Amino acid sequence: MTMWTFENTAQGHSQRNEALRVALTVTICMVLGKLLNLDSPVYLALYPTIIMTKNKDYSWLGLIRTLLPTLLAASTALVVTEVFSQHPFVVWTISLFFFDFMRRRATTPAKKGKMLMPTFNWILIVVFAQHSTMDMPMRIHEILVSMLITMVVAKTMVALFPVEQGSKPPVFKEQPVTFESRAISLALIGLGLAFLMIVDIISATFCMVPVIAAATQTTHKSFIDVVDRRFQTQVGGCAVAVVFTLLMAGHQSTFGYYTIVLGLFAFMITASMAKAKGSARDVHADALLATMLPIQLYMTSSNLGLESTFLRAWELTVTLFVLWALCHFVRKPTGEEPALVR
């Protein structure tokens, strides 16, 4: 059985529905991002992928609960950057309070996952307000539009390819976040934001995603596992995006061809994800996001964006290597859990 075929059973039917549901949602949203000529179409790759691979509640209320914190974080970041536009150090300091607020609330694995999008979108707004000439209030408008489109498309696909009610997700006991864990998260995320605010490398902003994911880990092993997995998925996703780009060479302005090839690539990844179990599902989900982001970010009707995709892969490699080196550098020679990530 290949990744393109599913068993003729109830389980196979459920897997096929999941693969089609996720692939079609991501493809339709990304295509709409191109057709609507948004200044930031990347949100119509980011939000649908996160919603369809991480979310469990597809009711209107569930979707709003998932996306609203991100909208509030981006809007608050815009207010902060506008009020203190002449004082970047104040913006950075307030950002630290926000990061610490988010980290203190992340007392379970699910809550750690939920802090990723608000934190990352805060950083996006701060960095782009600092270095770009974009109309930032319009960017918030596009975030809202992208969320609404994502919710409508996701609800439509869930209606066409229903989600099978499985067993209830495991309930994790809340663990109070230690001062040490807060300090580590604040140091990694805060220093990353400071670097991006000082050095004009807007393209490196998306490298903060693996930094945030790693910064919330509490043990040496989980930290290393996140870095290793992100290297495979993030850099590997860029490689898959390059293959897609080469297939599109000379035809990127042909709407039908672009849509079909994009849908096939999305289905190829989601079919593997639907069949995977446990942590392997997360690997495929991360790979889907890592593949779709550079396609949506860099490819236009007149530019393939290959150079930008290669640059993104290089920036991610450097970032992940720094995280890997940092974790090994602070490890105690006795082999005990290091104080940094105990």
TrEMBL record:
<feature type="transmembrane region" description="Helical">
    <location>
        <begin position="143"/>
        <end position="163"/>
    </location>
</feature>
<protein>
    <recommendedName>
        <fullName>DUF2955 domain-containing protein</fullName>
    </recommendedName>
</protein>
<feature type="transmembrane region" description="Helical">
    <location>
        <begin position="255"/>
        <end position="271"/>
    </location>
</feature>
<feature type="transmembrane region" description="Helical">
    <location>
        <begin position="183"/>
        <end position="211"/>
    </location>
</feature>
<feature type="transmembrane region" description="Helical">
    <location>
        <begin position="58"/>
        <end position="80"/>
    </location>
</feature>
<dbReference type="InterPro" id="IPR022604">
    <property type="entry name" value="DUF2955"/>
</dbReference>
<feature type="transmembrane region" description="Helical">
    <location>
        <begin position="86"/>
        <end position="102"/>
    </location>
</feature>
<dbReference type="Pfam" id="PF11168">
    <property type="entry name" value="DUF2955"/>
</dbReference>
<feature type="transmembrane region" description="Helical">
    <location>
        <begin position="311"/>
        <end position="330"/>
    </location>
</feature>
<keyword id="KW-1133">Transmembrane helix</keyword>
<feature type="transmembrane region" description="Helical">
    <location>
        <begin position="231"/>
        <end position="249"/>
    </location>
</feature>
<keyword id="KW-0472">Membrane</keyword>
<keyword id="KW-0812">Transmembrane</keyword>
